[in-house]
Write a structure and sequence with these properties.
about 850 residues; six-stranded mixed beta barrel; alpha+beta
C-alpha cells in the first residue's frame, strides 16, 4: 500500500472507527466462513470444520484484534487509550497527583520566571537599529590592572579622527539634573551628547528633528514620555524652552518610546563634537562607537591597540599605561547584573532538580504499589513498552499541568522580581514572558517528564510476573534494589538542598555583616533633600551658595529640626567626585603614582548633622568665604595615607576639582563608607561650599530631626521654595539610601533563601515519603518484633536512624559540592569566606533537623503498630 493510501486509510479509520470495526468484523467473519468451507470440502462435518478453522486461525475475537493492530492509526489509538488510562490513574490517586503537580509548579514556575529575566536582560538583542554593531569604548590601565568605564576627551577625539573601523564615535556624560520648566522645576535624567549619538543609534525623531553641532548647549531632544508628561504631546513639545544649569535650551525633537539610553535618560542636550575637557588624565566621558559595515569587534580592537601605542609614544606622561578597549554594548550594559542573574538561574535550576527527584521518588513509590497490577498485565501478554508507556504518560501529564500552572505562577513572580531588583538592573522595563520563554518552559516540561519517568518506567519494565505474584509485599520482602534507588534519590534531594541552604546562609551572613557594620555616621532621623538650583557661571554658583545658606538658616529654625546642612558628595548619594591630590609637608610620593581621594563640598555644620565625629581641628564656618584663604577638612584615612602619624592640621593640600589653589587643613573627621556598607572606608577630602561654588548648586540637604523625617516634607519644601522657586527637589531618608545601596546583596539573599526554603520543603516531602513507605512495607516485620518484646523506643530509633543516615549522606556530599563551588560566590560575599563554618554548620543543622522531623510521623506510626493486626494482614 502506498504512503498516501495508507495515510488516507488510517485517517478514515480514526474518523469512522465504528464503521471500520464493522468492516473488520465482516472481513474476519467472511474469512472464517471460507476457512470452514475449505475444511468441509475436505470431508469434515460442519461442526468439525468450524472447530478446525478456529484451531488454525484462533478465535474470531483474536483475529479481529490482530487485523485491527495493523496500520499507524492503531498506534494512535493505543496512545490515547494509554493516555486515558494514565489520566484515570492520576484521578484515582489525588494525593500523589496533587503533590507531584505542586512540586513541579514550584520548580518550573521559578525557572520560567528567572529565565524570563535572564532572556530579557542578557540574551534578547538590544532594541536599537544598529545594536549588533554598537560597542562601548573603555580605558584599561595596565599599571593597576583596572578597566575604567570612561575615557578622556582627547583620547576619544584621537580615536574618532584616526580609527577607520568605526563609522562614528560619540561622547556623552550626564545624570539626574534639575530641569526648569515654565513655572516650576523637575528632576530628570539628562545626558549631554554630540551629534554622532543619533548616528550611532540610528535615531529618528517622532516629532521635530535632530539637533546639529552648531546648537551646542542651545538645543535638546526629549523622550516621548517627557513630552507627554509636561507638554501634552510630542508635537506640542517641539520648540518649547527648558532651562538646565541656568542655560536656555530649545526642544528640537522628540525621540520615540522605548529609547532611553543611557539608563533612563529623558533629555539629551547638545554639546560640541570637540569635548570641553582637554585633560588626558580626567576620565569625564563615556563613549559609544558604531562599527563600519564589514568591520568586526576583533578588527576594531586591533586598530585600537595600535592607536593606543601611538598615543603612548606621543604623550608618554599621560598615556603611558593606557589602552583603549572596545566592548559590545549589550555586554557592557549587562556586565554588572550578569553574575547575579546567572547565580539565580543556577539556584532555580537546583530547585528544579530537587523537584524532579521528588517526582521521580513519588512515581517510584506509585509503581511499587502497582507492581501486582503490572505483573498481571505482563502475564496476560503486555509487552515491556506497553507496560512502560502509561508510566511515561503519567509523567507527561503531571509535567504538562505543572508547566501550564508554572507559567501562570511566573507572572506574579516576574512582577515581584522586577519590583525587588536593584534599581540599576539594566533593561528592567523589557522583562516579560515571550515566545522564547514559553518555548523554554515547554522544553523544560518535556525534559522534566522524561527525567522523572525514566527510573519508574525501567522499574515497571523489569517487573517479573512470577516473582511478584508469589511475593507477599506486606511482609516487607520487596527487593533491596528498590529501597536503594529510593534512598539514592533522597540523598540527591538532600545534597541539592544543602547547596541551596549553604548559598543562602553565606549571603544572609553577608547581609548581617553589612547591617552590623559601622558606616561612620548615624542614619536615624535623617531627612535627605536632593536639591538642584539653576546655575551655570561662577557668579551663579556664588548666588546659589548665598541662597542655600538662607535655606539652612530657615530649616534650622523649624521646631522639629535639630540641624540642617548641605553637601555635594553625600555618602550613598548620586553626586560626588574623586581624583588625585598633592600635599605640602606630607609623605613624599612619585608623580606617576599620586594619591587619590573622594572629593566632597560641604556647608558648615554638615558633620554635626550627619553625626560624623571631628577627631581634630574644627568644622567649616561662615567665615570660610570665596575671598578668604582656602581651607579643607580631611578624613582619617587620608591623614594616614598622606601624613602618617604626624598631625596634619595646618598642612596644605591641593586637588584638581575646580581650582589649583592650595588649601590649609583645618580639621580631621572620622572615616565614612562612601558608596556602600560593603566597601571599606576610603580617603575623603572635604571643602567648603562657599569656596567651590561651581559644585554648590547640586547638593543633598540633610536634616537631623527628632520626629519621623518624612513628616517634614511639606514644611521643608515651602522653606526652600520661598528662597528660590526654581529649585528641583526630591525627598528620601538616610535609612532608605543605605538600604538602597545594598539592594543587590539583599536581592540575592532573599531569592536564594526562597529557593532554599522551597528546596527544604521538597526535601522534607522526600524524606517523609521514603520513611512512610518503608514503615508500610515493614509493618509485618515491625509487628513480629513488637510481638517478641521490642520496645517502642528501639523501633522509633530505628526509623529515625535511617532518616539520619540519609540526611547525613546527603549533607556530606552537599558539603563537598559547596566547598568546590564556593569560589563562584566569593565575589558576592562581604566579611564571609565561602568556607564559613557558621553558615555551613547552620545549613547542615537545619537540614538534619528537618529530615528527623519528617521521619517523626512515620516513626510514630511504626511504634503504634498493633502486633495482632500486623500479623493478620496476611
Amino acid at each position: 500500500m502506498s504512503f498516501w493510501r495508507s495515510l488516507a486509510f488510517g485517517l478514515r479509520g480514526l474518523i469512522r472507527s465504528r464503521e471500520r470495526d464493522r468492516e473488520i468484523a465482516d472481513e474476519v467473519e467472511h474469512y472464517f466462513e471460507q476457512a470452514t468451507e475449505d475444511w468441509r470440502q475436505r470431508g469434515l462435518s460442519a461442526r468439525d470444520a468450524a472447530r478446525a478453522a478456529r484451531l488454525e486461525i484462533g478465535s474470531m475475537e483474536a483475529a479481529r484484534d490482530q487485523v485491527h493492530s495493523f496500520g499507524w492509526e492503531h498506534a494512535i489509538e493505543a496512545f490515547f487509550a494509554d493516555l486515558r488510562f494514565a489520566s484515570r490513574q492520576l484521578i484515582k490517586n489525588p494525593a500523589f497527583t496533587l503533590t507531584a503537580v505542586l512540586t513541579l509548579i514550584l520548580g518550573i514556575g521559578a525557572n520560567t520566571a528567572v529565565f524570563s529575566v535572564v532572556e530579557s536582560v542578557l540574551i534578547a538583542p538590544l532594541p536599537y537599529q544598529n545594536a549588533s554593531s554598537i560597542c562601548v569604548l573603555k580605558t584599561h590601565l595596565t599599571n593597576i590592572g583596572r578597566t575604567a568605564s570612561r575615557v578622556t576627551g582627547p583620547d576619544a577625539s584621537d580615536v574618532r579622527a584616526q580609527a577607520k573601523e568605526f563609522a562614528g564615535i560619540s561622547l556623552y556624560h550626564g545624570g539626574r539634573e534639575g530641569v526648569q520648566l515654565r513655572n516650576h522645576a523637575v528632576y530628570a535624567e539628562v545626558t549631554w551628547t554630540d551629534t554622532n549619538f543619533a548616528r550611532v543609534f540610528g535615531l529618528n525623531p517622532i516629532a521635530g528633528r535632530l539637533f546639529t553641532d552648531n546648537q551646542a548647549h542651545q538645543a535638546a531632544m526629549v523622550s516621548a514620555k517627557f513630552a507627554r508628561d509636561y507638554f501634552g504631546s510630542p508635537q506640542a513639545a517641539v520648540g518649547q524652552m527648558l532651562h538646565i544649569e541656568n542655560e536656555a535650551i530649545e526642544i528640537a525633537g522628540v525621540l520615540p518610546d522605548g529609547f532611553s539610553f543611557p539608563g533612563h535618560t529623558q533629555v539629551w542636550e547638545a554639546v560640541s563634537l570637540s569635548p570641553e575637557s582637554k585633560s588626558r588624565t580626567a576620565f569625564n566621558y563615556k563613549s559609544v562607537g558604531l562599527l563600519r559595515s564589514g568591520a568586526t569587534l576583533q578588527s576594531a580592537q586591533t586598530e585600537l591597540d595600535g592607536l593606543s601605542r601611538r598615543m603612548q609614544l606621543a604623550y608618554p606622561s599621560e598615556n603611558r599605561d593606557k589602552f583603549m578597549l572596545a566592548q559590545p554594548l549589550q555586554q557592557a550594559m549587562t556586565g554588572d547584573a550578569q553574575q547575579t542573574l546567572l547565580l539565580l538561574w543556577a539556584m532555580s535550576g537546583l530547585l528544579l532538580l530537587v523537584a524532579c527527584v521528588n517526582v521521580t521518588h513519588l512515581e517510584l513509590v506509585q509503581t511499587s504499589r502497582r507492581q501486582r497490577e503490572i505483573a498481571m498485565r505482563k502475564a496476560l501478554g503486555a509487552t515491556r513498552w506497553q507496560v512502560a508507556r502509561p508510566v511515561l504518560l503519567e509523567s507527561l501529564l503531571i509535567a504538562g499541568v505543572g508547566g501550564v500552572a508554572g507559567i501562570l505562577m511566573a507572572y506574579p513572580v516576574i512582577r515581584f522580581l522586577v519590583a525587588t531588583a536593584p534599581k540599576d538592573l539594566p533593561r528592567a522595563d523589557e522583562i516579560h514572558l515571550n515566545g522564547w520563554v514559553l518555548l523554554f518552559t515547554l522544553g523544560m516540561s518535556i525534559l522534566t517528564a522524561i527525567t522523572s519517568a525514566i527510573l519508574p518506567a525501567v522499574r515497571a519494565m523489569r517487573i517479573e510476573p512470577t516473582e511478584v505474584l508469589k511475593r507477599d509485599s506486606s511482609r516487607g520482602m520487596g527487593r533491596t534494589g528498590g529501597s536503594s534507588v529510593r534512598n539514592g534519590l533522597v540523598i540527591a534531594e538532600v545534597t541539592a538542598t544543602f547547596v541551596l541552604l549553604a548559598g543562602a546562609g553565606l549571603l544572609l551572613h553577608t547581609m548581617s555583616n553589612l547591617m552590623a557594620r559601622s558606616i561612620g555616621y548615624d542614619t536615624r532621623g535623617l531627612l535627605v533633600v536632593d536639591a538642584d538650583a539653576p546655575a551655570h557661571s561662577t557668579e551663579d554658583g556664588l548666588r546659589v551658595v548665598r541662597e542655600f545658606n538662607q535655606v539652612f538658616a530657615r530649616l534650622n529654625d523649624l521646631p522639629s529640626v535639630d540641624n540642617a546642612a548641605g553637601i555635594m558628595g553625600l555618602p550613598m548619594g548620586d553626586y560626588g567626585s574623586n581624583g588625585y591630590y598633592s600635599t605640602k609637608g606630607g609623605i613624599p610620593v612619585d608623580d606617576a603614582h599620586k594619591a587619590s581621594a573622594n572629593f566632597s563640598v560641604a556647608s558648615p555644620r554638615y558633620f554635626d548633622a550627619m553625626g560624623i565625629s571631628i577627631m581634630r581641628g574644627r568644622d567649616f564656618t561662615l567665615q570660610d568665604t570665596y575671598e578668604s584663604p582656602y581651607v579643607a577638612v580631611i578624613s582619617e584615612s587620608l591623614a594616614r595615607q598622606s601624613f602618617g602619624g604626624t598631625n596634619p592640621i595646618g598642612r596644605q593640600i591641593q586637588c584638581g576639582l575646580d581650582s589649583d589653589k592650595w588649601m590649609t587643613i583645618v580639621g580631621v573627621v572620622k572615616d565614612v563608607r562612601q558608596d556602600s556598607p560593603s566597601e571599606e572606608p576610603g580617603p575623603t577630602l572635604y571643602m567648603p561650599m562657599a569656596q567651590h561654588p561651581s559644585f554648590a548648586n547640586q547638593i543633598h540637604i540633610v536634616l537631623r530631626t527628632h520626629v519621623q523625617p518624612l513628616t517634614l516634607i511639606q514644611s521643608v519644601q515651602q522653606a526652600i521654595l520661598a528662597i528660590n522657586p526654581l529649585v528641583a527637589m526630591r525627598f528620601t531618608t538616610m535609612d532608605a539610601m543605605v538600604q538602597q545601596s545594598t539592594t543587590t546583596e539583599s536581592f540575592r539573599a532573599r531569592l536564594i533563601s526562597f529557593f532554599a526554603g522551597v528546596g527544604l520543603l521538597l526535601a522534607m516531602v522526600g524524606v517523609y515519603g521514603t520513611m512512610a513507605y518503608t514503615v508500610t512495607q515493614r509493618t509485618f516485620e515491625i509487628g513480629i518484633r513488637m510481638a517478641f518484646g521490642a520496645e517502642r523506643g528501639t523501633v522509633l530509633r530505628n526509623v529515625l536512624g535511617r532518616a539520619a543516615v540519609l540526611a547525613c549522606s546527603g549533607i556530606a556530599v552537599g558539603l563537598v559540592l559547596s566547598l568546590l563551588l564556593g569560589h563562584l560566590v566569593s565575589s558576592m560575599l562581604v566579611g564571609v569566606r565561602p568556607t564559613d563554618p557558621v553558615s555551613l554548620f547552620a545549613a547542615a543543622s537545619l537540614l538534619f533537623l528537618t529530615a528527623l522531623s519528617s521521619a517523626l510521623v512515620p516513626g510514630w506510626k511504626a511504634i503504634h503498630v498493633d502486633p495482632i493486626t500486623a500479623l493478620r494482614t496476611e
